[in-house]
Every structure is written in structure tokens, then in C-alpha cells.
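worker-3 :: picked DUF5820 family protein
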Amino acid sequence: MSEFDALPDSWTIWNESADQCILVFRPDVFDSHEFPAPCLPTLYLTHGRRSRRPGSELDPDPTDPWVVTLFLEPEIDRDAEHYDARTDAVAGTIALAERFADGEIDYRALYQVPREDYFEKLDELTGE
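worker-3 :: C-alpha cells ->
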């Protein structure tokens, strides 16, 4: 039994290790053909803050928080949520994935320059 069994079907575990998990939304749709690859909605669950520099956080401190961040593109993200324990962070990740899949996340508010075609597809897939 996986700790992500309750994950909505629209989300896929892309990569998982002891200190991080990367989840992607509908990779069958956001597959870089119709939309640029960076538009794949992604949830990062990391022990410590996710860094854009490879190797900068190879060994997080045990006291570092668990961080859950939703990215719509590399520079477009929702404020991260912080948790003290991995189990709480996994539950928070699943809850955020559910809210996103149910259309409860206002992803338009995260953009300064909207991508209307992208928004229309997200609206369709999240029931808006």
C-alpha cells in the first residue's frame, strides 16, 4: 500500500525518493505537443526548500520542514505549504492535488501574463 493511494487519478507520481516526490497533472494532455513542456502542472514535495540548483540540497537537515509547492511553469508557483512531518506533508500534497483537480485552485491569479489556451484546457480538465 502506497502512501499516495488516495491521490486523484489525474495526478501521476513522476519521481519519488526519501527526501522528495514529484507529481504531475495529466501528463497525457500536457505532453509538450499542444502545450510547451514547462506547462505541465507539477507538485513538489521536498524535505527542505526545493532548489533550482542541482545538488544544493543533497542532504537536508532532519529539522528542515517538508515543503509542498505547486508549479504551473518553472517561474509560476503557488505559495508553498510547510509541514513538520512527511506523513503530514503527504496528506497536504494529496489534499492540494484534489483541490487542483476539482478546480478549487485559482491558477489564473498566479500569472501576470495569461496563457488563455492553457487556461481553457485546465478549466476543461478541472471541471470549471
